[in-house]
Amino acid sequence: MTGSVHSIYTGGMVDGPGIRTVVFFAGCSLRCLYCHNPDTWERSHGTFKTVDDVMGEVCKYRSYYKFSGGGITVSGGEATEQPNFLRALLTACRAEGIHTVLDTSGFPTENLANEILPLVDLLLLDVKAFRKDTYKRLTGSRIERPIQTLHAAKRLRIPVQINYVLVPNLTDNREEITEMGTFFRGFDNIQKIEVLPFHKHGEHKWAELNLDYQLSDVLPPTKEDTANVLHMLTHS
Q1: How far apart, in whole angstroms, are the C-alpha atoms of residue 80 and residue 27?
Q2: Integer angstrom CA distances of residue 223 from 33, 165, 181, 198, 203
Q3: How crowded is the C-beta side of 191, counted as CA atoms within 13 Å?
Q4: Distance CA 84, CA 78 (A)
Q5: What is the per-residue pLDDT across 2-36, written as a single tens digit (0 to 9) for each?
Q6: Which residues lie closer than 8 Å to 138 by C-beta, 6 or more apart?
Q7: Is 34 helix (H, G, I), strand (E, B) or coil?
Q8: Which residue in 65, 73, 74, 159 is deepest, having the highest Cβ count within 10 Å?
């Protein structure tokens, strides 16, 4: 079993609990306006590796996982768009007793969610927006993926952390945020909600790839605005 891997980062501390090895899959069909890794969009930009190749890197740090409560985080790109490789890698981690986190914008189909989520110890679900038109404008895609993934995680009792990127004049509509917060109240498996302030750290990558970056004039939100949105999402 082989898959296209963009990169592997060791010593991660923000992609789940403890010290983690983060495996970035290559390939993503979303085109998020604020994406800071557009170099992961094309699967051809990755290196094809076997599950054994990746596990060889992951297992080097087993002692770090043990004492810190860490493990592997699979990210991207969008890992769910290589479902067979993702399933095989998570299965191998389970066999080795390694804690698994999946960072995703949602599965393409409900069936895939039902098949793969039982192999995940924690789901980091990137919810870009709540209204269909906002989601379409932001990602170029349809909102069904994260919604059906969240429902599947609830049904399978998979713990979830919601990640929401706050972009001024794009994802800061108070009514939409309130609606989203109310929706989240129906999911008792959501353990945490993170509001991540928009940044332009990856803007140079857009230029290098000759892509049109539409958010050059957008400033990051203030700490106060970020805190207010988090309060709205958790107290709606």
Answers
A1: 10
A2: 21, 13, 19, 11, 21
A3: 13
A4: 13
A5: 999 999 999 888 899 999 999 999 999 999 999 99
A6: 32, 33, 34, 128, 129, 167, 170, 171
A7: coil
A8: 74
